[in-house]
Amino acid sequence: MVNNQNEFNKEYNNKETTEIKIKNEDFEGQLIVENYPSLEILYLRGIDSIDKIILKNLTQLQKCTISDCGVQELVIENCPQIKELNVSNNSLTNLEFLKNVEKLQKLDVDDNTTLESGLEHLPQSLKEFSCENIKLPYQKEQGEDQEKNELQQPSKVFNEGKKNLYGIIVAKKDKEGNLTKKFFKLEEEYKNEKELHRDIYPIM
Q: Is 5 in contact with 54 (CB distance < 8 Å)?
């Protein structure tokens, strides 16, 4: 069992390990995973009461899952090879942890119901972004009336391979209850989130 930082350090004292998997544990305090130069896969799921996780100097890490852990803060430093990151079902509030993850291709932040900022940190390498049941807003189509049954958060974001170009697919129900989707494109280099939301417009 791994219930605190000391137990984690003892259990995974081999710094050359390529995979770390922990699930369904009660944990006390924050968790620091650092200085595993050969680690390629990190899997943490169903670990209660971890408020903060720090990933540092994991230079070969490519796949990382931190799900159902109640994490409020995630810090990623010197993990340049991460391509897939699943941080669903936590309590994250922003996406600032992405600012140095430049090779990320797939990101899942579903069910972080407190997540409400940080779209400007999405890397250009991103190909798929799943963000169901969060608070990240979008700008409605100009001239369109706001409907009560409109689903107001984006479901997917895709980078189209162009510099600073992103798209958001927004799900929406019509009067008959049918689910439709509209694609919104984001252009320009955005320095703050207000600019990002204001300049979303639909591609027809």
A: no
